[in-house]
Amino acid sequence: MKALIKKFSEIGIKDVATVGGKNASLGEMYNRLTSKGVTVPNGFATTSYAFWEFLKDNKIETPLKQLLTKLNRKDYSNLETIGKQAREHILSGSFSSAFSKDIKKSYTSLCGKDLKEVAVRSSATAEDLPDASFAGQHETYLNIKGENQLLEAVKKCFASLYTNRAIKYREDKGFKHDTIALSVGVQLMVRSDKGCSGVGFTIEPESGFENIIVLSGVWGLGENIVQGTVNSDEFYVFKPSLEQGKYPIIQKKLGDKKLTMIYANKQQEKTIVNSETPKNKQQQFVLTDGEIIKLANWAKLIEDHYQKPMDIEWAKDGITNQLFITQARPETVHQKRNKNSLIEYKLLEKGTILSQGNAVGSKIKVGKACFLKSPKNVGSLAPNTIIITDTITPDWDPLLKQVAGIVTNKGGRTSHAAIVARELGVPAIVGCGDATQTIIDGTLITISCAQGKTGYIYKGELSFEEKEIDFQNIKMPKTEVKMILADPENAFPLSFYPNDGVGLLRMEFIITHNVKIHPMALVKFDQLTDISLKKEITKITEIYKDKKEYFVDKLSQGIATIAAAFYPKEVIVRLSDFKTNEYANLIGGKDFEPHEENPMLGFRGASRYYSDLYKSGFALECEAIKKVREQMGLTNLKVMIPFCRTLDEGKKVVATMAENGLKQGENGLEIYTMIEIPSNVILAEKFAEIFDGFSIGSNDLTQLTLGIDRDSELMGKLFDENDEAAKQMIKMAIQSARKTQTKIGLCGQAPSDFPEFAAFLVNESINSISFNPDALLQGIENINKAEKSLKIYKQANDYIFFE
Less CB within 10 Å around the terminal CB: N or C of the chain? Predict the structure, then answer.
């Protein structure tokens, strides 16, 4: 006789047909990974044989088949009725005495002397196939204690094979209903009701970037994170740093975690309930750095064992403080995606932002806002419908395939809504907080997930373009092609574009958008006299006792994200190059910035770094870079000094950096300088004695050569990088760099806008050219044409082409 029950110790990944993907994976990890330190709670599983026997004993196989023949497969208008009747068939059945006895015996054996709480999870026997996740299709019951409660929960799991969403999912995937059985996993509960829990991906879930592990967590039981009821904490871990034993956490994002799911009192009908999270715990990360790293190591072990990206669930017992892995399944979205091809979306106009949240996917859609409180009694929806709701649970799944987009108040990137939206290819913006208040029902809106990790909902219809790019058809030139980047949110998707690294990482964007506060206002926080300003800074930096640490953390995380995205390729970060009027716009900035009539030529760039007015602020910049390079191990990061007017100034800055722990040559540190002032060109050979490389800033060099403010509306027409004087300056700089064997590149728009400018740079044998992402592909084309023409010319004149 076939077994009705199997212990986790008796099953492995080969048993998917017997116990489903979820239980087979738990057994596999329990047997194969616990010896490597991965902790998995013990348990047992009912088998597919037990399910088929249950249907046979209660004579409900035929009624279920007949019932599903009545399903309206055109618009699924009777799905709710069919699902309800199917579940009633199963719930009205009875377990055989042998099956009931086996469940009770296994439960007692699992718990020992005292019966313990268990989690009861559904696991379909076709679950977690490469092209299907079954995520959230069937039910899970937590905090189940006692034999009667357990038997009831098992039967409810059986019935959940016919939830409306599960029926529709199988229809969409082409699975035959009568070929799929339901196994039930019974697993010792981790007391995460007193601790925390969450999910993780061994791949960046939006872009598919493979060197990142993303962990999300909430206080209490994990249902809140799956259902998207609360906004979770997020942690990004860089795999190469993890493997090298370096500090691998490159991003930490604090979620509000307003609710905590806990065990219900015995008097309550439900077994779990939500309670309000105390304010101090909302402002605290659910995991310590050590715990994040431990979970990330486990996630990597699981990924290595299965040889594919994985989606995991974890929990921390609040009584023992022990971490556990409670589930693992293959990631099902990115393994099917062609990484050499993508569809690029781009907004063509600005609009009024109604709300914003976490972007899921990369699409842009225009549609009509449709407010829904629940999926009940909702028939078919128009294809251009964009659902606006508070949160989305698995009950919504049948509706999601019909719509153009999804917007929710609650939820994170790892919530059920986000997972299903990715699988369906439906753009979603989750965790907006105020979407149901700021968007008007029935109005036309544009949702954009094409601007990084933040998604935006715009008023009305905005024009946009979409184009397919096939990277396999792009030939890289011999001249290095690099990117100009500023926003860490775009780093992972942009890393898939053809490139040789990042020639210019603009630090100013990270300070403006991520830090927001003037560094000197943090250094001298205790000396601030403006009470309202101190309150504003205190609120932003609430979780930091040391205000300076806030600046270092935020800046280092932004820089590290870009350095990690392009690792091990070279990434050159330019130190802050705000002008005084721009610095003054930061929070607290007005108290620390002098007023200048011409900030463009004033207190900016290198001159700030050794000045008493900013020296302690510059020390924070250095500390952030040191953290990225030394603690995180991202030694592909190089540093560039902007607006260095004199040789003496260059030496002072290099010395100041060394005083702050960034010593040139140590741990491979290279220090570049911008060539953007005529003095840099004239004395390039001497600047080469101080710096390891040059990057021509063609905009500033042109305006200072021609004496034109490039921002002036009156003089704008005269500003031209193709001007002969500007090009002569560039030519002189390249020749000096060649003479001193110093690496030299150029950052600017001209090589993509003007093919002849690209040809000029190639003819002068520049090492690299850096482009803004939207100009990258055109720039590559222009360089390829220039190199081809140069090769033909040199061959015709009996020259050997420089390799």
Answer: C
Q: Mean pLDDT in the chain?
A: 91
Do 159 and 137 contact (CB within 8 A), yes or no?
Answer: no
For the record, the structure tokens of 406 come out as: 């999804």
For the residues of 163-226, what is the DSSP string, one character each? Answer: -HHHHHHHHHHT--GGG--EEEEEEEPP-TTSSEEEEEESS-TTT--TTEEEEEEEEB-THHHH
Find, among 677, 678, 685, 679, the residue nearest to 736 by Cα. 685
For 561-578, b where at least 16 C-beta lie within 10 A, e where not — what string?
Answer: bbbbbbbebbbbbbbbbb
Least confident span in 204-213, 224-233, 412-421, 749-758: 412-421
Give the helix/strand (H/E) hosting 503. Answer: strand 502-506
pLDDT digits (tens, 9 = 90+) for 502-513: 999 999 999 999
Alpha carbon distance, N-terminus to C-terminus of the chain: 72
Distance CA 777, CA 761 (A): 17
Residue of 157, 449, 644, 747 marked active site: 747
Active-site hit among 89, 138, 416, 518: 416
Q: Is the peptide bond before 205 cis (omega within 30 degrees of 0)?
A: no
Is 757:747 a contact under the CB 8 Å cutoff? no
Residue-wise pLDDT tens digits, 500-550: 999 999 999 999 999 999 999 999 999 999 999 999 999 999 999 999 999
Question: DSSP secondary-structure letter at 287?
Answer: S
Question: Where is 125: in which H helix or E strand?
Answer: none
* CA 787 – CA 776 distance, rounded (Å): 16
Q: In this model, does residue 25 exceed pLDDT 70?
A: yes
Tell me if residue 416 is catalytic. Answer: yes
- Tokens representing 71 are 């399903």
